[in-house]
Amino acid sequence: MGWVTKMANVSFNRKRAKLKQVLGIRARLALLAVILVAPLMLERIRSLEDTRTKQIAQAAAEFTTVARHSADAQREVISSVETILKSEAFIRASAGGVSKSCDVLRASLPTSLPWIRTLLIAGQEGRIQCATNNMYVGLDLSDRPYFQQAQQSGRFVLSDFILSRPAQSPTVMAVYPVSAFSGVADAVVLATVNLDWMSKVMNNLGGRVGITAVLVDSTGTVLAAPADEHSAVGRPLDDMPLMSAIADMALRSDQDEGSLSFLAADGSQRAVSFIRIAGTNARLIASIDEDKVSAAVSRDIRTAYLQLAFVVVFVLLGALIAAEKLVIKPIEMLADMAKRLGEGDLSARAARKSLPSEFVPLARAFNAMAAQLSQRERELIATNDRLTVMASIDMLSGLANRRGFQSRLDFEWMRAQQYGSELALLMIDVDHFKLFNDTYGHLEGDSCLTLLGESLSGIAADTMGFAARYGGEEFCLLLPNTDVMRAVEIGEQVRAAVLKLCLPHITSAHMVVTVSIGVAATRPNEALRPGDLIEAADAALYAAKHRGRNNVVEHGVQAIEKGPAGMMIAASA
C-alpha cells in the first residue's frame, strides 16, 4: 500500500514539473491578462479622468524638480567662478605686487571652467591692470555699479546683464575685492561670465510644450534660456507676451523660492515657480501653461481608450509577444547596463524610449546613478587640474617651481624651434647661502629668498621673461627671443638688483647678499634638447662661482656633428 502511495506522489510531481514548464512567464502573463482584462478595462476607464489631473500635477512637480536641479547647476557655475576669484584675490593679497599677481593670473585661467571667458584685475581706482585677454587692459570700470558695490560691500558681487565694452558681447561680471583678504582697500578681481554656457546648463528645461524657463537678473533682463528660447537672452521679460505678468510677480517677491498661480492675459491658466540663485539677485523662473499641458494629456487619454478597445481582441496573441518585449527584454537590457556600470563604463545609459513605462523609474534611477558617477569623475578631473596649477607655484618666492619651469621651458623651446628664434637662460645662485642661514637663521633665509623672488619677478615682467625658483637658493630666468649679449646685460641687471637690496651678510666678502649668474643661449633645433640649455647655464654658473662669485658668466656647448649643436659659446665674466 505504501509503495502505491509513493508511486502516485512521483507521478504527481512529474505532472507538476511539466505544468510549470508549460506555464512559463509568457504563458502565465497571457493567462493573467485574460482573467484581468475585463475588470481592468472597466477600472481603467473609471480612473482615466482621475489620471488626467494627477498627470498634470505630476508634470508640474517633475518640471519644478528639474528646474530646481537647473538652479543648483547655475549655483555651482557661479560658485566655481566665486572660488576662482577668491583664489586670485588671495594670491594678489599675498603677492604684494602687480607684476607677480598678473603673471599668476595669466597662467591660471582654468580650461575646465568654460563659463569663465576672461579673468581681470582692476586697481582701486577702477582701471584694469592686467587680464587674460589684453583687449581689456586699461579699461576704466570705476563708473560700473558692480565695481562700486564690490568695493563698498567687500563681498562677491554678480552684475546684471551688460554688454562688454571691448567685445560688444552680452555677459555678466563677477567681482571679488582683494580687501576681503587684506583688509585694506586694494585691487578688485573680476571675471566675465559666458552667458551661452549658462544657457547650456538650462537645456534640460527646453523643448517642452507649454513650458517656459528663463534665468533673469534683478531688473528682469533674461540672462540665459534653453536653446528653443535663446532669442530671449538680453530682452526684458516685459517684452515677452506670456512672461510680462510673471516678471512683476516673481521679481517683487522677497522669498528665495516660491510658486504662483494666476490667469494670464491670453486667458490661459499658468503656474510659475521661481528660485533665487544663492548669493546673487538672479532668479530662475519657470512657467507652465496648464491648458497646453492638459491638452497633451487629453490626447494621451483618447489614445488610451482606443488601445483598451483593442486589448480584448489581441490579448491572447499579444501577451506572448509583449511578455518578451515588455518584461524579458527590458530586464536583460537593465541587467546589461548594470553589468557595464560594474565594469566601469560610465557612459552606459538605459534607452527609456524603448522601455515600458513600468521600467522607466528603474531606468531613470540607473541613468541618474550613472550621471552622478560621471559628474563626480569630471569634478575629480577638474580638481586635479586645479591642483596641478597650484603644484607649479613655489609658495615661498611666489615664482613658478621647478615643475612649472620645466613645463614653460619645453613650451618656449618648441616655439623657438618653430620660429627659428633664440632662447636664453640665466641660472642664479645666492652666494654662501648656507652661511647666511647659519648666521641669521632660517626665517631670515626665507625672507631673503622671498625678496629675491620679488626682484626677479619684476625683472621678468620688464624683460618678457619667465622667472622660477629652481630649488633651494637657486633661481632661473628664461628669456625667449633673446641673444647671448642681451642675456648677459639682463644678468648684470639681476646682479645689480640683488646688490641694491643691501641685505646684510657678514660672512660674505661683500658684506651683503650677492648672486652668481650663469648665462647660456641657443637657437633650438632638432639636434638639441632643453636639457642642453640647462647644462650650459649650470656650467656657466659653476664658472661664475669659481671666479669669485658676484659675477655673470656666459658659457655654452660646442656644436658637433652628431651631438648637441647650436649652443652659443663664450667664456668671459
3D architecture notes:
By secondary structure, the chain is an alpha+beta fold. It has helices spanning 2-22, 25-95, 98-107, 145-153, 179-182, 195-201, 244-252, 290-342, 360-390, 402-419, 433-440, 442-462, 484-501, 530-546, and strands at residues 116-122, 128-131, 157-158, 162-163, 170-177, 188-193, 211-216, 222-224, 257-263, 269-276, 283-289, 423-430, 466-471, 474-480, 515-522, 552-554. Strands 1, 2, 3, 4, 5 and 6 form a 6-stranded antiparallel sheet that branches. The chain has a 5-stranded antiparallel sheet with strand order 8-7-11-10-9, with helices on both faces. Strand 4 and strand 5 (170-177) form a beta hairpin. Helix 2 crosses helix 8 (290-342), helix 8 crosses helix 9 (360-390) and helix 12 crosses helix 13. It starts with a helix and ends in a 19-residue tail after the last strand. Mean pLDDT is 76; it is low at 557-573.
Which helices and strands occur, and which strands form pairs?
Layout (H helix, E strand, L loop, with lengths): L1 H21 L2 H71 L2 H10 L8 E7 L5 E4 L13 H9 L3 E2 L3 E2 L6 E8 L1 H4 L5 E6 L1 H7 L9 E6 L5 E3 L19 H9 L4 E7 L5 E8 L6 E7 H53 L17 H31 L11 H18 L3 E8 L2 H8 L1 H21 L3 E6 L2 E7 L3 H18 L13 E8 L7 H17 L5 E3 L19
Parallel strand pairs: 15-16
Antiparallel strand pairs: 1-2, 1-6, 3-5, 4-5, 5-6, 7-8, 7-11, 9-10, 10-11, 12-14, 12-15, 13-14
Helix pairs in contact: 2-3, 2-8, 8-9, 11-12, 12-13
The gist of it:
52% of the residues lie in helices and 16% in strands.
